[in-house]
Write a structure and sequence with these properties.
By secondary structure, the chain is an alpha+beta fold. 24% of the residues lie in helices and 31% in strands.
Length: 123
């Protein structure tokens, strides 16, 4: 009798922290503007796909609305959280919208001050 050994699945569950966060954007005029701004960040990778744009960041990154205004050639205040939400389809990690930027966090502990996440154990 021959014993068969199966190879390890590349799709196995892995619950270790990835230290990654990100979102997908529609491949539209606004999505391209956002992607162009984020391409300049060292810890962000932007992947252009036929119908969407994937944005993945390591640790934490910020989308500063004034940078998108400038990229678009529009006056300050043109781009905001509502415009961003309309261009974005899904995200992973913690997302915090402020008046002037959106911050993405890979780890909830890093976003604690923004999301009222208590780091103290409950007794």
């Amino acid at each position: 009798m021959t014993a068969f050994k199966t190879s390890e699945s590349p799709f196995k569950a892995d619950n270790t922290a990835s230290n990654m966060c990100g979102f997908t954007l529609m491949n539209s005029q606004v999505g391209v503007l956002i992607a162009n701004v984020l391409r300049r960040l060292d810890n962000v990778k932007v992947q252009d796909l036929p119908s969407m744009i994937r944005v993945d960041g390591q640790g934490k990154f910020e989308l500063v609305y004034a940078d998108v205004d400038e990229e678009a050639g529009e006056e300050e205040g043109w781009f905001n959280a509502a415009e961003f939400e309309e261009a974005m389809s899904t995200h992973y990690g913690r997302m915090v919208h402020l008046d002037d930027k959106t911050i993405m966090f890979a780890n909830p502990e890093d976003a604690a001050e923004y999301i009222d996440f208590d780091l103290k154990p409950v007794s």
